[in-house]
Amino acid sequence: MAKTVTAKLRRLPSVDEVLRSDAASAAIERFGRPAVVGAVRRILAEFRARGAVAGQLDDVVAEAVSQLEQLDKPSLRAVFNLTGTVLHTNLGRALLAEPAIAAATAVMRSAVALEFDLEDGRRGERDDHLRGLLCELTGAEDATTVNNNAAAVLLVLNTLALRREAIVSRGELIEIGGAFRLPEIMSRAGTKLVEVGTTNRTHPKDYIGAIGPKTGMLFKVHTSNYRIEGFTREVAARELAVIAAERKIPLVHDLGSGTLVDLVPFGLAHEPTVAEAIADGADLVTFSGDKLLGGPQAGFIVGRKDLIAAINRNPMKRALRLDKMRIAALEATLRLYRNPDRLARELPTFRLLSQPVADIEARARRLQRVLQAAVGAAFAVEVVACESQVGSGALPMATLPSAGLAVRPVARRSAGRLLKRLAAGLRSLDIPVIGRIEDQAFILDLRCLDDESALAANLASLDLSEARDEPD
Length: 472
Ligand SMILES: *Cc1c(COP(=O)(O)O)cnc(C)c1O
Fold this sequence. Notes:
It contains 20 helices and 15 strands. The protein has 472 residues and is an alpha/beta fold. The protein folds into three domains: 2-72, no CATH class; 80-89 and 352-459, Aspartate Aminotransferase, domain 1 (Alpha-Beta Complex); 98-342, Type I PLP-dependent aspartate aminotransferase-like (Major domain) (Aspartate Aminotransferase, domain 2), CATH 3.40.640.10. Helix 7 runs parallel beside helix 15 (324-336). The structure holds pyridoxal-5'-phosphate.
């Protein structure tokens, strides 16, 4: 026995022999020599460890190519977002409008006048490209942009209230997705948090009583992802603006998602717009680029000219600034807002949010049979009504009537395991399909599905064999 194994091992080709084959040359051309050498070494070592027989050079190369193809797949993969959450933070939030994609692509290929004044040939500012549009769309005096809204909040706190106090209602001390907790951001910004009022009720006198010589700013925060209901009282931005102005203390309003237009025509609840927050008297307003605004990740700070100038002098601004690609995409996105009537067509976020439920349902009917064929007889697929949500902490209570496909295991026994296998199978497709498990069913909400035939083609290779089960 031992003798035959040794004989077979002796028959395993050497690394050099494998590399000299034609198949290996082709692989080297494709993946580069170091990668192929590494893979061949690994595979021969595996064969040796298993006492394996494969003496074929081509088997070794084929195995190497298959491993290298796996490694070559981009880590950041496109997926089908069928979760029903339109602005899904974990799936990259807003999809960009075509003009934004074109603008970003164009500046990637070319040198651009990013900080260069083409009129007089002198140095310009990167904020110049967005300032005009932002002021026009919000009614603010001035504007600046940073990496995201978290950065906007950090920079404002650090500029207006470094080693000073920022006064916030206890009802607004928000945590957004784990890592962004207002009290922690404030301490990192070098600001002393002064909490006023209670969780459910804060009055004007609470703010007034807390104002003192060390107050740097009053801070109003949109409670994006929660609502306090019942016996409540908050001080409206407009009331707070009067208190702040009388005492010459800046009022900063973090709108979170923020929106540049009234959302009611899109079938959503009213959200205060950035222009309304400015008109209500906020000295600065901060908001996100990739939530309801529908652009790339960015944070905006709009408001009083002197305060924006102070923010731009803060050395931290440099660490938080935007690159040319995002500035180009933002400029093109903001331009779409000049014609609000066309937003529902041109801005994917609004298009997805305002889709008629009848259209989504028709899509579900068209795909029912395709999905049924892909999942096989162990599952039953039916068209169902469901509820989508906006996501990213915007309009947390608003649900949008939607439609989709529910996939249920036919047998009750081991239904849980079958559902997990289905979810794993869908995730491992060429274009992974992400849905959600709810009430013993896997739900695919079809609101955000743009390309039906791509989904159908993709589903054809679904593999739900038991080998996919995770070990218990
Ligand atoms: C989402 C949100 C932020 C953070 O914005 P990002 O753009 O995700 O950095 C800050 N404040 C509020 C109130 C938010 O809703």
